[in-house]
Every structure is written in C-alpha cells, then in structure tokens.
Design a protein that fits this description.
Layout lengths: L4 H4 L2 H4 L3 E10 L9 E11 L5 E10 L10 H7 L13 H18 L4 E6 L2 H15 L6 E8 H8 L5 H7 L12 H21 L14
C-alpha cells in the first residue's frame, strides 16, 4: 500500500520518531559537572513537502555560571567569553532550559514525534553538558534522549572525509567565518546547515526514502 507523501516526508518517519534539535554549548572547561556552562543555542529543524530538511526555530542564551562552578582560564581565553561581563545579558541555567524545553516539547507534539535527539558537532561534549545542567536545575520532563545523538563530526568523516566543522562546511559549499566560530549561535547555525546538507545529500543520492515495502508504522 503506497505511503502518503505527508507521512513519508515527515520528521517523524525520517528519524524513527525522533525530533532532531541542533545544539552548541560554550563552556568554561571540559568537565560538565564542575565547569560553568556559559552559552547555549539550539535550532529546530523542519521538513518541506518534498522531504528536504531545513533549519527552523532558533533559541540562544548567555548563561550565568552556576554557583560553585569553575572557570578554566584557557577555555575562556579560547572562546573569548567574559563570564562576568554584565553586557552579556546572561540568564540562569534554569530559565534557559525551561525555555528550551517549552519549544522542544511543542515541536515534538507538532511533528508527532516521540522525543528529541541532539544533533551536534562532537555531540558527546554538548550532550554531557546539557544533561548535567538539566540535572542541576531539577527540571522534569526532559525531552531529549538520554544517550543517543546525531554527531555531525562522525557523519562528516564518513560522507566528506572531514571531521572539523569549518572544513566540513567549506567542502559542502557552506560558508564558514572563523572569526565568528566558537559563538554558540554561529556554530549551531553552521552545524544545522551542515546536518541538513548531509541528510539531503543522502536523499539526492537515492538513499532515502527507503523501499516502501520495508516501511513499518512507528
């Protein structure tokens, strides 16, 4: 029995019921339990009527270091973030995560998905920091998968032969300004464009949608 286009060309069908959310985190170190989370951005994705993946909604927050957190000098020198600059307009982890959860839950429901899945470049880093922040804030109903991610570094290594974000973007024809790199919003934007290109490239090569005889209702 043929699959209707609205089902076949849907995020729910494409990613086995998962709703992909692109994320980038800037931090004051590499240890999620002790080092401050300083900046977070997310971009949700959508699929058009022809099954092409596209960036959609954005959220971006500067974050106040949580009480007792550590600030590693080499990390803030690298990402050029002054955690205590009042002009950052930083908010608490709690407020940022509440706003992120609200948007993600809305999008999961709208797209008939089961839960969200993190898309990031070297995703384990961002996933670990986000999960630590969620645990600290005690906010319930976490929409994100507890361990599964889509890592654009791994996907780019397979498809493009590159694992560095800037190089993967450039080889894909996506402009990358190194002067803007290590800003959470910029890196999330470029990662979202890269992920969409990788998914859409697979579609252009004939790798998706699968044979309809193999389709199983989620």
């Amino acid at each position: 029995m043929p699959i209707k286009n609205e089902k076949k060309f849907s995020l729910c069908y494409r990613f086995r019921g998962f709703f992909p959310v692109v994320i980038d985190i800037e931090s004051a170190g590499f240890h999620a339990q002790t080092d401050a989370l300083l900046e977070i951005a997310i971009i949700t994705l959508k699929m058009n009527e022809n099954g092409w993946l596209q960036p959609d909604e954005k959220l971006h927050f500067h974050i106040q270091p949580f009480k007792g957190s550590l600030i590693q000098a080499e990390s803030v020198a690298f990402n050029k973030i002054d955690p205590f600059n009042p002009l950052r307009g930083a908010i608490s982890e709690y407020k940022a995560i509440k706003k992120i959860f609200t948007l993600v839950h809305q999008e999961i429901k709208k797209n008939h998905c089961k839960r969200a899945i993190i898309v990031a470049h070297n995703a384990n880093f961002d996933h670990t920091f986000l999960m630590a922040a969620i645990e600290r804030t005690g906010i319930s109903k976490n929409p994100f998968h507890p361990f599964t991610t889509f890592d654009t570094a791994s996907l780019s290594g397979l498809i493009l032969g590159q694992t560095v974000l800037a190089k993967a973007c450039k080889i894909s024809g996506i402009p990358f300004d190194t002067n803007q790199a290590h800003s959470a919003l910029y890196d999330t934007t470029q990662t979202a464009l890269l992920f969409c290109e990788l998914v859409n490239r697979w579609k252009r090569l004939g790798g998706w949608p699968p044979n309809i005889n193999h389709f199983k209702k989620i």
